[in-house]
């Protein structure tokens, strides 16, 4: 009996040793901002110092026309908006930003990320750049930041564009297609464990479910998402944003939005169901919906031409009588 017990302890010890060895084999350190900037900046990249120690990376591209401010979704970066910048820059000053915990924006240790904090940073950015009015667009989590900004600062918002926007709660039957990465991160046991490990496989799986056509997921895209998540402090912020519960939107809350609103959605969105588009439309009086068939969570990338054309058509009457404004 003692020999059997000793053998069992030896086996447990070997399993633990293998597990620890596997952990350290998969462990990934932070990547310095300087290294990431060399890989992912472009000629339009700029930085601005904002409150609470945030150094925000942004790009201002295009014409000296009305401003279109773009806010990316969870775990993404301003790179998601490059297709729109290319297609709308002939008429608009297209400004995209990286939120703390994302892209090349840095924040101090212990930064308390939240939708409210992001909303307030958008206002700080607008003030720093001298933007008195603009159209604002957001995808997914960025869509929630955008509509909360429109509620808080309607005097600055000429128009609101929601692209597969977050806010409403899914029904229990609607999260079956959610990427496993999101489920693992939200889990109180696996989330912290995954924080420092190689997440290439889960990023690839998550991106695969973000597009209706998986051919959009390239090795280059996966590498960018993985690299930028390893900027100092980013993984802690991403974990906090996924695990901290958000207060659901209500129709009564959204009814206060009185700006022209365009709601864009992909009918194959696996992250936020397409029925949420109608919830936004019903809640916001001055709104219209454009659903793209066979498109996933990122219409700005998957149907760049069609979605940009929809935005152009929507904004044209908004700016017929509005003077242009740009930033340096």
Helix and strand topology:
Elements: H1 2-26, H2 33-40, E1 45-50, E2 54-62, E3 67-71, H3 82-88, E4 93-97, H4 115-129, E5 134-139, H5 141-152, E6 157-163, H6 180-186, H7 190-194, H8 200-210, H9 219-229, H10 234-243, H11 251-254, E7 261-266, H12 275-283, E8 287-292, H13 299-302, H14 304-318
Helix pairs in contact: 3-14, 4-5, 8-9
Structural descriptors:
328 residues, alpha/beta, eight-stranded mixed β-sheet, 14 helices, globular
Task: Please provide a brief summary of the model.
The chain is α/β, with parallel strands linked by helices. The chain has helices spanning 2-26, 33-40, 82-88, 115-129, 141-152, 180-186, 190-194, 200-210, 219-229, 234-243, 251-254, 275-283, 299-302, 304-318, and strands spanning 45-50, 54-62, 67-71, 93-97, 134-139, 157-163, 261-266, 287-292.
Compute the number of strand runs.
8
Structural shape? globular
Low-pLDDT segments: 2-23, 323-328
Oligomerization category of the chains in this entry: single chain
- Report the structural category: alpha/beta
| Sheet of most strands | 8 strands, mixed
Order of helices and strands: HHEEEHEHEHEHHHHHHEHEHH
Strand order of the largest sheet: 1-2-4-3-5-6-7-8
Mean pLDDT: 89
Number of helices: 14
